[in-house]
Each structure stands twice: as structure tokens, then as C-alpha cells.
Amino acid sequence: MAFDGTWKIDRNENYDKFMEKMGINMVKRKLAAHDNLKLIITQEGNKFTVKESSTFRNVDIVFELGVTFNYSLADGTELTGTWNIEGNKLVGKFKRTDNGNELNAVREIIGGELVQTYTYEGVQAKRIFKKE
Q1: Within the chain, where are the H helices?
Q2: Per-residue pLDDT reduced to its tens digit, 112-128
């Protein structure tokens, strides 16, 4: 699948405003903007493994399309939700366990880059990755 590979963060769009809306304090927002995030994505059928490595943590996330799972963001925010394929996009629909608010994510390949778009409470941000 097109998502397979090693992806290194290149740039962010509106990421600070998104994190602020999520309730992340200024110090953590400044650090997160320079987290040197790297994703290694592999897919076997409906099963995905995403290895995240950054300045803050290293974690392996394993999920199956359409199957609900729990996930913790780097700041400790707990989510529950699913990923599904919609056309050529990987679409995530999550709810925060602390307040029930929705956090949506879309991963897609645009011009050879992996673009992750997040939407929370009307604020949208993008993290753009280049393939290593």
C-alpha cells in the first residue's frame, strides 16, 4: 500500500493552534512542534503497524481497519476509535476518553508526501512527512 515506508516529519501547518485547542500547555506545544517525529508504517491485509519515534517517546501502534482500539497521544490524552480506508485515504475517527470530544485524522499521500490532517473542535492542522 502507498502508506508503507519510513516517513520523517518535514513541516506543520496550524499545529500550534490545534494543540492549544486540545488543551496542551505552551511548553509542551513548543516542544511538540520540534519532535522530529518519524513513522514506520507497514500493512498486512487489514492490519497496520505504525512505529512512532520522536524526541519524546517510541511506541508501536497496531490496529486493524474498522476495529476499535485505544491510543494515547504523546501528551497523555487517551483516545478510543478506529481507522478505515476511504478511497485512497486512511481515515481515523476517535473520541477523547476524558471529555468525549471527537478527534478526526486523515492520512493521505499527496505529491509523494504523507499528509496527516487532524480536526478537533473546528480547528484543523496538518503534519507533512517526506519519505526517507
Answers
A1: 15-21, 26-32
A2: 999 999 999 999 999 99
* pLDDT tens-digit map of 53-100: 998 899 999 999 999 999 998 888 999 999 999 999 999 999 999 999
Give the C-alpha separation, 16 to 28, whole Å: 10
Pairing of strands 89-96, 78-86: antiparallel
5-131 belongs to which CATH class?
mainly beta
Provide CB contacts within 8 A for 39, sequence distance 6+: 6, 7, 50, 51, 52, 114, 129
123-131/69-72 β-pairing: unpaired
Confidence grade of residue 39 (pLDDT, cut at 50, 70, 90): very high
Residue spans per domain, the chain: 5-131
